Amino acid sequence: MQTPTSCHVMAKPTGSVCNIDCDYCFYLEKEKLYPERQNNWRMSDATLEAYIKQTIEAQKNNHVQLTWQGGEPTLMGLTFFQKAVELSKRYAGNKTVEHSFQTNGLLLNDDWCRFFKQHNFLVGLSIDGPADLNDCYRKNRAGKPTHVKVMKAIELLKKHNVDFNTLTVVNRENVTYPDRVYQFLKDIGSTYIQFTPLVEREARVAKSDQLRLVLPHEALADVTEWSVPARQYGEFLNAIFDQWVRKDIGRVYINMFDSTLSSWFGENPSICHFAQRCGHAFALEANGDLYNCDHYVYPEHLLGNIHDKSIEECNTSRQAFSSERTNRKH
What we know:
Elements: E1 8-11, H1 45-58, E2 63-68, H2 78-91, E3 96-103, H3 110-118, E4 122-126, H4 131-134, H5 147-159, E5 164-170, H6 178-187, E6 192-197, E7 201-203, E8 221-223, H7 230-247, E9 253-254, H8 255-264, E10 281-284, E11 289-291, E12 302-305, H9 311-315, H10 318-329
Parallel strand pairs: 1-2, 1-10, 2-3, 3-4, 4-5, 5-6, 6-9
Antiparallel strand pairs: 7-8, 10-11, 11-12
Helix pairs in contact: 1-2
């Protein structure tokens, strides 16, 4: 068992709590794992400090990436992340600490954007294309469209010169419009584009307190109606590649193409499912529970709680290495 030199931890300070209700979101139902946290869902200051200190200590190189996601992390409020920056400076030592922040953008304002710019946050903004394609699945809690507010967030980020990239979930609806989606993302100024194929399986029978979306290997489950068909996803990427390779190489970066090229040259790809093995890219729940991956937040993949077992201990544990083989098999 080779000792890993580093790990990545995606922190979810709100857990699954979010201010929008995407039809396809696999994380909203994770609230069923923590029914006791319905009224106390925020990450505590003690857990925040433990996460930052332990993540920095677990890296054997001099570069540390602190990643914030959700749910929706802006629900924690700006003060929480000001404290996070202070803690990262306190524990950094000789290491360089960078922050990345994934958001739906609905709560962004000038104060948030000034903060992101001041502390060099890389912001990932979730958007699935033009209004009709984005609003097909990405709605607020009242079932209303979100696209207009996301576009306002983009204008704010540009106003403050905040570096941002976009995350687009490729689903059954927008997969048929590759040219529209790609041109739209370029028009809004995204030069770092992440396409994530939506493939989810739903249990045929599940009790109200059980998770409905299941792991890939579980029987008695069917692919959801919003999942992207395999052939159409390939055609989607091919259509965008034909445009990108003619016009945009060197100025637009698309994660799928970059990872394919890295694999071709024998380098480590940025997308986990391109790697020979996955693992050591963990998800941290708001209470300090550490899981193998944010797609593996299931009880059988719980590595421990960072108040009882450090991130470095989890990273070098037999269970973490065992999950490498399990995830690779899937």
